[in-house]
Write a structure and sequence with these properties.
Helices cover about 30% and strands about 25% of the residues. It is of the alpha+beta class. The chain starts with 11 loop residues before the first strand and ends with a helix.
Length: about 450
């Protein structure tokens, strides 16, 4: 299980270790009223407030400067409405906890990303998404929320109450207020069948569109320096849980614990000091990938355990430009002479109506680039980012990128609407920090 770094009192550090802060006033509120009191006090003192949970954003989007609201006491499900098929949970609840509780209730989210360590607030505020499906990401499944504004108001937002705030606050970057509870649309617990298999680069490129059309969710990994891909395709198998055929415990331990975490972590750490060995190591690893199939309740298939700490940049380009952009990334990488030990992740998602979602208004093709946390990511990410920008790419808000407000505004048709609501809900910029000043404007 991914764990947070142990940090001294009054300090904060994100999971990747790239961002940290010290000298903070740390408050652990247990209710919206306690959040409101902390915000009112900070505003009067001219201080800023950030609610930062597990720190799984690679950027400094959640980095506190003065007051750190730690949401550890704001966890759990508040209510279940089986008629409306909605579930309301406190915003500090981790996704893995929500998933487990929903399973107990016979319910599930429609779609999710592949990591479940984040708090609900952090996940929707940064636009966490999955692959495929009818809903492109968590934010598109949000039907209500409660937040504390920069003026100290506890505000409810739903389709019937403050709908303009709900519209924009589903991906809020933490700039509109402190989320205290979130209501998700859910569905009956369902089974996903997973088919994982290796294929050649040419086979993957030629068959990608057919693969995504034939399956509910597809995730693909390309190993730099190699000509091989790993594909993971998931199809729904209905709500009869008795049809689930999970991996044997020994196989799950071998593949997902020992090999994917322990061995991979040791290998990539060692390759940091012997980068010339990376190409051969990647080609060997790509050849060793085997096929497997299994099925389980949805969240046990969607999510994976990541203990190896890494750094990541991810962009969404228009779906129709995706394969071209991927080919250009490979060509640029092979010309560069760089060595990278982590695979590139490839996913697609349908368009949504969330104004600051990376899939707003367009079907999207996601490319995620990773390095070991002790490797220098700068040259590699800059090279890949140039290709992404050439295709109108939108960066994931919680992952590394170099864009600022001037770059981002043309990518989001409703960027101005978001800034207007921010002016209304946080006129004194109680929730700002240097990252938000960069991407939204000071």
């Amino acid at each position: 299980m991914s764990t947070r770094h142990r940090t001294p009192p009054n300090t904060w550090r994100n999971w990747s270790g790239l961002e940290s802060a010290s000298g903070l006033q740390v408050i652990t509120p247990a209710s919206a009223e306690e959040v409101r009191a902390a915000v009112v006090e900070a505003r009067a003192a001219g201080r800023t407030v950030k609610a930062a949970g597990t720190g799984h954003s690679f950027t400094a989007i959640a980095k506190p400067e003065h007051v750190h609201l730690l949401p550890d006491r704001m966890r759990g499900i508040l209510s279940v409405d089986r008629d409306a098929m909605t579930v309301t949970a406190l915003a500090g609840t981790q996704l893995k906890v929500l998933n487990a509780e929903l399973e107990r209730l016979g319910l599930s989210l429609h779609n999710m990303g592949d990591i479940a360590e984040q708090t609900l607030a952090g996940a929707i505020s940064t636009g966490t998404h999955g692959t495929g499906g009818r809903a492109s990401g968590l934010a598109a499944q949000v039907v209500g929320l409660e937040l504390v504004t920069g003026t100290g108001e506890v505000l409810q937002a739903s389709a019937s109450e403050n709908p303009d705030v709900l519209d924009l606050a589903r991906v809020s970057l933490g700039a509109l207020g402190v989320l205290t509870s979130i209501t998700f649309a859910v569905e009956p617990l369902f089974v996903l069948r997973a088919e994982e298999k290796p294929m050649s680069w040419d086979e993957g490129m030629a068959g990608f569109d057919d693969l995504t059309a034939a399956n509910d969710h597809v995730d693909m990994y390309w190993f730099p320096h190699a000509d091989r891909l790993l594909t993971k395709s998931y199809t729904r198998s209905g709500t009869d849980l008795s049809v689930a055929e999970p991996l044997p415990r020994w196989r799950s331990w071998l593949d997902d614990d020992l090999l994917a975490n322990t061995v991979f972590g040791a290998q990539t750490a060692a390759l940091n000091v012997a980068p010339r060995a990376i190409p051969a190591a990647n080609r060997f690893a790509a050849r060793m990938i085997g096929a497997r199939s299994y099925s389980n309740v949805a969240h046990r298939v969607f999510t994976t355990e990541r203990r190896v700490v890494f750094r990541e940049m991810e962009y969404a380009v228009p779906r129709e430009a995706g394969l071209t952009a991927l080919r250009e990334c490979r060509a640029a990488f092979e010309r560069s002479g760089l060595s990278v030990s982590f695979p590139v992740e490839i996913r697609v998602a349908p368009a949504d109506d969330v104004p600051l979602s990376t899939s707003y208004g367009r079907d999207s093709f996601y490319l995620a680039f990773h390095t070991h946390h002790r490797a220098d990511h700068t040259a590699y990410f800059a090279l890949m980012e140039a290709v992404m920008r050439d295709h109108g790419g939108r960066p994931h808000w919680g992952k590394l990128h170099s864009l600022d407000a001037g770059d981002l505004a043309p990518l989001y048709p409703r960027f101005g609407d978001f800034l207007a609501v921010r002016d209304r809900l946080d006129p004194d910029r109680v929730f700002t920090n240097p990252y938000l000043d960069r991407v939204l404007g000071a």
